[in-house]
Amino acid sequence: MSDPNNALLKLHNIHTHIGEYHILQGVEFFVPRQGVTVLLGRNGAGKSTTLRTIIGLWQASQGLVEFDGENITQMSTPDIARRGIAFVPEDMGVFANLTVQENLQLAAISGKINDSRLQWIFNLFPALEHFWLRPGGTLSGGQKQMVAIARAIIEPRKLLLIDEPTKGLAPAIVQNLAKAFRALKESSTTILLVEQNFHFVRSLGDHVVVMDSGLIVHTGPMSELSSDEALQYRLLGLQAAHV
Amino acid sequence: MSLNNKPMALQSLQGRWTDFAPMILVTMIALFAWPLIGSMSTWATLTVAGLAMGMMLFIMASGLTLVFGLMDVLNLGHAAFVAVGAYVAASLAGVLSVLLKSSTGVEAVAGMALVALGAMITTALLGLLFERFFIRPVYGNHLKQILITIGAMIIIEQLVLALWGAQQMMLPLPEAVRGTLVIGEVAVERYRLVAVVLGLLLYLGLLMVFNFTRIGMLIRAGVENRDMVEAMGYRIQRVFVAVFAAGAALAGLGGAMWGFYREQFTAAIGADLLVQMLIIVVIGGLGSVRGCFFGALLLALIQNYVNFLIPDFAMVSNISVMVAVLLWRPSGLYAPGR
Question: What is the pLDDT at residue B5?
C-alpha cells in the first residue's frame, strides 16, 4: 500500500460504541489520495460503522480521524461534509418526497448546479434524465442508487464514502454502476467503498482493507488479494469456485 | 439537459401534488352535511364557522407538526405559545386602542395586524428560549420531552397569571370587523371570513415556501432524513431552531386570532386546544403541513356539523374522526414533508 504520510484519510486506533456495544475496537488504516480503497468484511464486521464514524454520524469514543492533514474526530457531521467528504449510505438516503432534481439541487451546497457537471453526471447515468422530475420515493432500487451517487458527486469532492452500492441490485445495474465507478476513478476522485461483493470490487479497487469483529485484519493492494485465493478464503471465506 | 429549461416551481409541481383524496374528502363531507342540515343558510353559516375555526387551528398546529416532523420532538408545551400570543395581543390592543376603535376599516385591520405581529414576535422570541432551555436537553427522548414540555407549559401559564393576573382577559373585536355580511339568505360573520382568508393565504404562503424555496426543500428533506441532510453539509440544528421559532410565532398568531374570536379568555386558552391540535397533527400525518391543513378543516367542519345535528355526540366526534382517518390512512392524510 502507498505512503501513509501522503494519505487523504487516516484512522488511528478508532473505537466506536453504539449504546452498550463496542463496535469498532481500534480501527487503524489509511486511504491514499485518488483511486478506490475497498473496505471488505463479513456482515457485522463494522464496515458501515467505520464510514458513519468518519462522517461524524457516530462519534468515536477514542482515537483520531485525520482528513487531509486535519483532525476531524470531534467535528460535527456538517463541518466534516463541508471539508469535501460525501457520504452515500447503505439505504441510499434518497429523499422520497423530493424530486430527483431537488435531491441534486440540495446536494449542491453552493446553491447552484454547474451545467457542465450535470451533463457529466448524465453521461455517467443516462437514465437520470428520464426520471429527473419524479419523486425519489417512486424510483426503483437501482435508480435510487444512481441518484444517491449523483448527489454525492454533483460538486467536486475530495473523498466519497460509499456503503454497499450493489446491495440488492440486479446484475445489469451492478454492471452500469461498475462503469460509473471506473469513470469516477479516472476523474481522480478518491473513493472509500464498502462492499461485500468481492467480484464487483476486485477489478475496481486499488487498495483493500479487510475488517473482522471491529478490527482491521488485512490491508494491502487489491492485486495481492485478488490473486491469492488462499488469502481470500482466510479473510473473506470465499471458495475458489465462488470467486 | 439544463436545470434552467423549466422554472423550478413548475418542475416541482409535477409528480408530487397528485393526491387529492383528502381535499375531496373535506369537500364531500361539507356537501354531504347540506341535506342533513336542511337549510341552506344554516349549512353555510356552519360551514364558514367550521372553516374559520379550522383555519385558526391549522395556524396554531402547523408549528407543532413541523417540530415533530423535523426533529422528532413532542412539544406538548406548544399550547403555551397560543396563550402567550393571546395575552400579548390583549395588552397590545390596549396600546393600539385608537387604531382598533377607529370606524375606518383599514385602520382597524391595520391595528389588528400590528397586534398579531407583536404577538408573533413575542412568541417567536419565547420559542427561541423554550428550545434552548426545555427542548435541547431532551432530544431523542420522547418520554422526557412529554414530561418537560408539559412542565414548561405549566410554568409559562403560571408566569402569564403572575404577569397579567388571574382575571379573564378581554380582547374585543374592533367594531369595523364585527357584524355579519348578508349574502342572499346567508349571514356570515365578518371576522370568520377574515380568518378564512388569512388562514388560506398563510397555507398558500407556507406551501410556496416549502415547495419553491431552498429553505423549504431543506425542511422537507430534514423531516424525512435528518442524518442525510447533515451528511450533505447542512446544519439542520439551525434550521430546526428557526422552524421552532416560526412555529411558535404561528401559534402566537393563532392565539391572537383565537383571542379576538372569543373576546374573553383565561390562561388556559391554549391548553384547552391542545388535544385538538394533537389530533390534527396525527391525522394530518406527522410533519406534513398539507396534512395539517386538511386535518384541521376536517376536524373543525365535522365538529361543527355534529354539534348542530347530534349535540350528544359532540364530545366523541374528534376521536371518531381520528379513528376513521387512521383506519383509512394509518400514517395520516399525507406523508411527512408534504
Answer: 42
